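INFO  loader      accepted 1 record
INFO  loader      residues=256
INFO  predictor   begin
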Amino acid sequence: MKTHFKTLAILAALALATSVQAQVTLNRIGVGSATDFPAFSISGLNGTLAFESIGTTPAGATIAGGASQGANIANVTGEIFNWTGPNSILSAISIIDMGAAGGDTYQPFLFDLGTGIYNLPSLQFNPSIQTDLFSDSDSITMPALGSKNFVELDLTGSDQITLVTGQSYAFGLALTSGSANLNFERASGAQSDPNGDGYTFANFASTADNAAPYSGSVRNEFIGVYTTPVPEPSSMVLMGLGILVGGMLIRRRQKA
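INFO  predictor   done
INFO  writer      dumping tokens
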């Protein structure tokens, strides 16, 4: 019996060490009169709101006072945020789609920029030396929307990376096909933000900044970050054991 459970423990550890297929799916809901991103993920399964780049003041930093920005300003657009919470699993990210024809395909990406703070137009980073924490095979097609919607990217598998306390991250969408007709909401007017700011760049070989089209001032793209707690090691082993034991019982029944 001891040998049997020892074997199960080893198999469970191996199963947990195996990479899981990455996947990004979309969920959306109308903004309506909301003043914040939803407190819980739209899917209901992908965590709670842990960070958002919108503010209560000034008026231009609120959802009601934000401005519509067309993604055709560049091939890539996104937002930098500094993670100040505890180490947590990133389970979803939302943007606000202002309504567009849809049909464009984008590759979502996430860079770990280290402990530096990127909250001024003069503080730039070089995308060509960054490692995408998401899967390179990720691809999303924006739906056709006629009004302002929260559009949530639900992350599963290896895309559910761990956000580390004190690190700055650059989230973005890179256009891979289509005519760049996505319109997203951003802050209107200069905004003081201790966490980061919005940025654009033409391709992954160029330098990212927010000087254009943001008039050289901080203009946050509105994003919501959803997280779940980091599982305890013992919980992960038990989960792996449960999956393996369940599979063994099913196979035993099938043989019977």
